[in-house]
Amino acid sequence: MTALTLSTAAASGLRADAIVVGVAKGAKGPVVAPGAEAVDKAYDGALAGILETLGASGGEGEVTKLPAPTGFKAPVVVAVGLGAVPENDDTFSAEALRRAAGAAARALAGAKKAVFALPITDAADAGVLAEGAALGAYAFDAYKENGKDAKNGKAPLAEVTLLGGKPRDAAYKAALARATAVTEELNRARDLINTPPNDLYPEAFAAVATAAGKEHGIKVQVLDEKALQKGGYGGILGVGAGSAAAPRLVKLSYTSPKATKHLAFVGKGITYDSGGISLKPAGHNETMKCDMSGAAAVFAAVVSAARLGLEVNVTGWLALAENMPSGSATRPGDVLRMYSGKTVEVLNTDAEGRLVLADALWKASEEKPDAIIDVATLTGAMVLALGNRTFGVMANDDAFRTAIVEAAEEVGEESWPMPLPEHLRKGMDSPTADIANMGERMGGGLVAGLFLKEFVGEGITWAHLDIAGPAFNESGPFGYTPKGGTGSAVRTLVRLAELTASGDLG
């Protein structure tokens, strides 16, 4: 992991591989951003002009490298674009800072240390810059020769020093500690998502959760296939029936002696999704190791809450199964009796995520938490609706849905409120069972949300986050987002736990 430190020393005297400065896009050309005044002065105030000559505009994520001024111990200056100059001399947004820090950290792969002379006006700025840098420096190299990318031979940036951050100030230290905890767990979620399914199957995922629980004082309970059978978890067992790797339901319980509220997070954990008997078409299988991204997000959020010592009880439920075709697999037309007692006619075995979530949601409801939030790479329909960078938010309470969207925006995650139209429920009526796992094709993401709603306990506030779009980035990296697993929804869940702890969320 990238080490994060604070410093108020002069930029010229710091030993590092590079000094990172910000440049914004102004009406008449690039503008050097606050934080880089000493660097600009060393160029005799001509840094903006030099950058423009080199083709820099200050556009978001743009990276330009140039030799450092005479007298600097770092040999290179890296200018990173922050986007448009804020109107009315306003400060740069948190997300602009986060993305710039991420782009710079990614561009400095192979370096041991970089000094970031980016805009910092308070401890919050230091926190988001630290977040962006740590997330941008991420690389999944566990399967690379010698632990680094064989193509370019560059390991992730090892250390980032934030210039202008006050190392002895309590607020700055707290912001850095928070950023460190959250990004380390988010990057662990990315690692899990990126791990090949032959190494990350339900039992293996459960073992990771158990080890983390011991490390961070989280109580972990694992229900294996025998316990699931005894308990009547027909949804989880039905999805996992075709695989040689047996399913698991994992409960992680973080409790605070000062807590007055209880949140439950439920994550879809399909460690590989072939579609089952309703096999996915060619070209749709290669990235299906990412179908456990919801469970990874829940896992990371619970551990983050524990590491931050939040004054709220947080329970995480990981519904883990591998969806495979075989002689023992659930067939289209089969009826499953769920943990709640309801029966479900399985019309499509590739609509499996809602089946494992249904069991976990009902189990979570038994504890009567103040709210339940489930997270899942649930439907391709949500990707069609919102694209690859935005997750949908559905809820049985409009105010709660709004609060989640606002929390996501605050931490830099793109989300959008989605409805749960009651008229779509009729499409899931089954002549054989209480409900079918499929309904109308149009509005399929909303249909899935309505299905899940059926398995939430009466009177419990609930929300569903469909992260099918942003969970796995198949295109090139951008900002602090890498190619592959992204850790979508982790920061939103952590922020919701913080707001609940402080009494600002319900």
* Approximate shape: elongated
Helix- and strand-based class?
alpha/beta
What do the pLDDT scores average to? 96
Strand order across the largest sheet: 8-9-11-10-14-18-15-16
**Which runs of at least 5 residues are low in confidence (pLDDT < 50)?**
none
Q: What is the first-to-last residue Cα distance?
A: 35 Å
Q: DSSP helix count?
A: 14
**Strand residue percentage:** 15-25%
Strand segment count:
20
Helix content: 25-40%
Radius of gyration (CA) equals 24 Å
Main beta sheet strand tally, sense and closure: 8 strands, mixed
Write the layout of secondary structure elements.
Layout: E1 3-7, E2 18-26, E3 29-32, H1 37-42, H2 47-53, E4 63-67, E5 76-84, H3 94-107, E6 113-117, H4 123-136, E7 159-163, H5 170-194, H6 202-216, E8 219-223, H7 225-231, H8 234-240, E9 248-254, E10 262-273, H9 293-308, E11 313-323, E12 335-337, E13 343-345, H10 353-365, E14 371-376, H11 380-386, E15 391-395, H12 398-411, E16 415-417, E17 435-436, H13 444-453, E18 461-466, E19 472-473, E20 484-485, H14 490-502
Parallel strand pairs: 1-7, 2-5, 2-6, 6-7, 10-11, 10-14, 13-17, 14-18, 15-16
Antiparallel strand pairs: 2-3, 4-5, 8-9, 9-11, 12-13, 15-18, 19-20
Helix pairs in contact: 3-4, 4-5, 5-9, 6-9, 8-10, 9-14, 12-14
General description of the model:
The structure is a single chain. The chain is built from 14 helices and 20 strands. The chain is elongated and about 80 Å long. Strand 15, helix 12 and strand 16 form a beta-alpha-beta unit. By secondary structure, the chain is an alpha/beta fold. The strands form four sheets. An eight-stranded mixed β-sheet has the order 8-9-11-10-14-18-15-16, sandwiched between helices. Strands 1, 2, 3, 4, 5, 6 and 7 form a seven-stranded mixed β-sheet that branches. The protein has a three-stranded mixed β-sheet with strand order 12-13-17.
